[in-house]
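User: quick one, fold this
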Amino acid sequence: MSFKKTATYACNPVTNRGQSTKLSSTRDGNRIVYANGRTVIIRDLDNPTLAYSYAGHIQPVNVARISPSGYYCASADNAGNVRIWDTSFLKTNFPPNDLEPSLPKGEYRPISGKVVDLAWDGESKRIILVGEAREKFGAAIMMDTGGTAGDILGHSKVINAVSIRSQRPFKAVTASDDTTIVFYSGVPYKFEKTIQTHNRFVQDVQFSPNGDLFASVGSDSKVFIYDGKTGDTKHELPSPHKGTIMAGSWSPDSKYLLTSSLDCTVKLWDVEASKAINTWTVGAGVPNQQVGNTWAGSSSDTGIVSLSLGGNLNVFDRRSGDGPVKSLFGSQKAITSAALSSGTFFVGSYDGRITAFDEQGNASRFTEGAGHPSQITGMVSDGEKIHSVGFDDKLREIDPSSKSYTDKTISLDAQPRNLSVLPSGVTLIISETAVKVLDGSGKEVSKLALKYKATSISASPDGKVVAVGGEDNIVHLYDWTGSELKESAKLEKSLAAIGALAFSPDGSWLAVGNNTGKIFVFDAKTRALQTDRWGAHSARITSLAWNEDLKHCVSGSLDTHVYVWDVTAPAKRIAIKEAGPGGVNVVAWLGPKTVASGGADGCVRTWDVTFP
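Assistant:
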């Protein structure tokens, strides 16, 4: 038995209100680079199935940038650590097949606080890092040794951005909350002068690719253009945005400047003519505030990307003035639940958002209807609708065809942990101490008080038997009479709390996973133990799913691994190691030989498996 990764549907960048989010890109290939939590994402703009995630950091990452040579990426985190790692696969094999991050070429801690931004020089030999620290706000280092390459001085507050001129003579600029820009000459980089053009926070500075100019943007809604060799101010762009400008990026030919603002607009400037040639409005309201941008690829017409506070990556074409030509969606937080309906894979996340991936791999986030404002704890499909529960103590309904919430919302009297549905349309919801049964209209049919703390629930396909797992290490089996649940048996083989349950599609098998990583399979009719040899996991089993062939079961665990098991040959398994950095929370069969997984890093991955 073997496997092959077929797709990675990337998470979207993490955003914070009032803060710029750093995006970067590659000139070779239409790809963007950004961070989400401890993960760095390299994502193809044209093909949603092509993405690479790097999970080498142990602290949240704030910025990642590919070197001009394309062979290395530098990423930096909240603790001041910068890692230099290999990206040569960008030229030959994107994305690479290996799951584990390669050993870094270098790992350094040049400042003792949060790194906000970094920049490579044109020779891919030196890096300047800036941010928040106790002793200093920035450092210049050699990428291969970590040794000093100059002094980043002249600011009195946190530095928000840095850029380095790619051509000799090397120059560098930094932008700070102290409202100043500092201009450096190098190498080694030394303070040359302070530039005082803005009267509020300076959010971003960027040199043009040809090095002739650099631009600055700030909270005063102003854009200034400077000479790249001397740092002298050339001019201010007229009639800029009406809100804070969070980011600026140059076109590959250095003719155009892209700016993104909290006024929900993105502007494209002809720098030589000193005028805006395109103004795109991206919706309205706080979620559509623009907090970051980049210009990917080598074309000056395409590859324009701006990030909304709500997490959407908006892609523009210079030749189109009608708004984004497309938007890229994905989870911003950990995936906590999932459901499959009519070929579409729905995943719910820690922040209450739901993303739907269709058979072509395209993702569309729900934008209509009232959704969950906080973590989604359970999702299930009844064949026509998807039902979800969350920490808002609500049961909500989703229409898969329109990919939106319906008006059906049921308030619950306790925080739900998970749910299941019966063929009759009955919904069963477990809280810590009860099982609540609702009919198709949402009316309570019955409520069963529990003497143990419930953790998981699964109903047999015929709707006659309901299994509830508990912290008492027991799986409690109940018969559904049509009006109430009556306990009929207990499965007491587990020595730890139950983590996940799953009936096979024909109801003949019941898989039980516990908090130590052990999986048991029972004959659902006789209650006899079929096997207890599925013990490769080393942490809590979070999800189980049976294949339609009734033989194979897939499991996901907090140990980051996914295993595919064969009930007829318990000793055989397909081991997909490190399938989800931080832990796997959901698994599902998208087809007879295709497995999907999602978890703590917010990415969805698919795997083709081969049975003997």
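User: anything notable?
Assistant: The mean pLDDT is 95.
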